[in-house]
Write a structure and sequence with these properties.
Length: 247
Amino acid sequence: MDFSPAMITALRQASHIAVLTGAGISAESQIPTFRESHTGLYAKYNPQELASPEGFRKDPKLVWEWYAWRRSMVTKAEPNPGHKALVDMEKHAKNFTLITQNVDGLHIRAGSKNVLELHGNLMKTRCSQENTLVTEWEDDKTIPPKCPTCGAFLRPDVVWFGEKLPTIPLQKATLAATSCQVFLSIGTSTIVEPAASLPFLALHQGADVIEVNPEPTPLSKQVAFTLRGAAGIILPELVQAAWGLGG
Ligand code: OAD
């Protein structure tokens, strides 16, 4: 792909690069996205029923099993060239913040260091009452399993619809968006708040915003640079164009 020289210069000169990723970056690791009508998880399940406190109260077993299915898919998945290119980008950037809406943990498994998981992590479990992280529990075959301390149901440590995002990662993400020189928005439909506002915050404070997505989003018309295509192809090429062979 031919990249604009201005974009390459902006990347090289930035003292802080911030990146927001969504489900699209993990699509090439065979993890379905949420909103692409035929393949997305949301085509098969109603997210309001599954990914919400109300849904969990109504049918905790169904919700636990849906997440168990997603966990097993993530366990089998591997980080792809898009995740790996962001590891390389972090090594070249002076300051680098990787903000992700993904709960699959693939950025951390790929080797990214400064990662803010805005929506939690599928592989972690917490008590639905006490909100404490729980790593071990008795397997008495009840689904969901119960908290060893208080006996309430355990739940995945992810953010559900209607729930607040974790305060510190959100504060750090907002600070990164409002102080970076370059902001990349990668593989996200840019519609779920508050994450969807981050690239707009970056735009308004004067950062160069680059979108990487095969499809247009509400952000597309406002950004300086649009890279249409798969993150796993574009990002390695971009890192190579900005910083040279081998990323
Ligand atoms: P979506 O499923 O809404 O959007 C995925 C985006 O990835 C779309 O814009 C696709 O065009 C794009 N895409 C697909 N394949 C791609 C590829 N190979 N490379 C680059 N982009 C690609 O997923 P999110 O924007 O992440 O929240 O959704 C945001 C949040 O909505 C999720 O974190 C989840 C959901 O509700 C919670 O569960 C709280």
